[in-house]
Every structure is written in C-alpha cells, then in structure tokens.
Amino acid sequence: MSFNFGTDLLKVFGHLLKTELDYNVVIYIGEEPDIKEFHAHHIILRCRSEYFNDIISYDDIEKQDVNGNYIIKIPNIVPQAFDVILRYLYTGRVNFTNKTKTELLNIMIASDELNLEQLAKLSEDFIIERYHQFLRNDLVEIFQLTYDRKSLVKLQQFCLEIICFEPKILFNSDKFINLPAPLLKIILKRDDLNLTGIEIWENLIKWGLTQERKFDQDVFEWNQDDINAFKRILNRFIPLVRFYEISSEDYLNKVKPYEEILSEELRVNFHKIPGYKRTFNIYRRKYSIYISSILRASQFNKSRKHLPCDALGNILNARSL
Fold it and tell me: What is the reported pTM?
C-alpha cells in the first residue's frame, strides 16, 4: 500500500519560498525603474528549471554579496510575471484569476524566455480561449511579440489566420510599415492571404518606401542608386506577388513605374500572360477560413452545440457569393 503526501510537500516548498529560509540565490528581475529582488534556493531552481540549472552550473556565475549567494540578473522579464513563475517553480501551482490581459501576456512571454514550456503553453491556451477580442485589437503587436517563439505556435497561427482573413487589420494599420521583413515574408507566403495580386504589390511598395532610406514619392525622380536600393529592399518579396492576377491596366498604372526592380524574365513573362481571369472565388475562400477560425477560437463555446448567430449569418451569406 502506498500513500501520496505530495500536497504536503508542496505546502512546505511554498512556506520555504515565503519565509526565504536559508536562501542562497538573489535574482534581480526587470530594468530601471522597475527592478525587483527575489530570493530563492539553488537546489529547487536547478531541479525545476533547465534555464536556471544551466546558469547556476556555469563556473563563472557571479557571486557578489558577502554571504556567497548566487547573483542572477534577468532584465527582459517584468517582476510581476516572475513572481507568478517563481511560485509555480516552488509549488507547481499557478493562478490566473484577476490577472489583466497584459499581465497574462507577460507571464506567457517570460515563461517562454525561461524555457518553461508547460507554463508557456498553459498561459497561451488561456489567453486564446478567454481573450479573443483583446487579441484582435492588438493583433499586430502580439504577432510581433510571439512569431519567433517556438513554444507559442498556437498563438502565432491564431494571429496569422485572422490577418489572412482580414488583411486590412494589418495592411491598413500605421504599424504595417514597421513590420520586420521576416514577418512580412511569412504573411505573404500564405496561400490563404485574402489580397489580390495588385493589392499585395501596392502594399509592398508602401512598405518598401519607408525602409532604410527616404525615397522621393515620385518614382520618376529617382536616380539609379534609388532604384538599386529599392530593388534590394523588395527583392525577396517579388516572387510572392501574384502577378498572374494583375490586369494589364493595373500593371501599366501601378507596376510599370517600378518595373526596373523586376527581373527581365518576369517582365517578359507578364506580357505573355493573357488578361487575368479569376480562377477562384475569393469570398468563398474567406468564409471557409472564417469557419475554421471560429471553431478553434473562443467565439465557439465547446459547451454549446450551435455556432454564434452572427457567425452563422456570415456563413449563410457566403453561399450566395
């Protein structure tokens, strides 16, 4: 017969964290003016976190105070988030009750930063489930915050699907011109991005004109250095433009002024393409994506057996397009 006293053990660890008895690690979290000092025990940190285990294992780890405590500085995490994380490391418990949306994001990012995959994914799921509208309102910032974090794939995909379904959220935003090139490339590579070829081209031009240098808005005033610089900026994106969707009229009015940044082969091939004819129904595609997204997001409550009325209305309307 065996007995489980795990709960009692967690209480002891929680008490140890609270009393700071015999602590031997001092952790400085945050940057001025918001820096907070935390006290912990190296054996618990090493057992519970690979991140801290690696740091404490270094031979040259800083030991500055008279008591020989380990000194660790983590400036890129906010103290409020680390307070939750440290309690999680000691007790295995986390409480998101009464946490603001920003605090939850900070916990998620800090968990990812400290390689706490389980806590990062837990907070990610909680945010997606509970704060759908918040994510939509700050979609660009959140996507930029998470796109290169491997443990936050769900949130990246969530943001991508919304951007692809409603591109104006990003492309009509003042923040669009500040979008990093790798992130823009990820978006433009998506087959479900609901922009036509000419819309992609126009947005690329808008983005490119704000990068690296100040270009004259009148392209006919550019010298060869301007053309070469602009070509270098947009070169990686040119293959992602759906030129087969661009009409001859749009090409003449909107593409030809910048034609020198295109390869000779592309220019020749375009003029061989007959007038563009839509080969798919973009609206049907949009609503198929929308159906998929609402089934995964918080608009669809698993406890209900029906779609929200507004979503159902959109789906029915799509049938007539």
Answer: 0.75
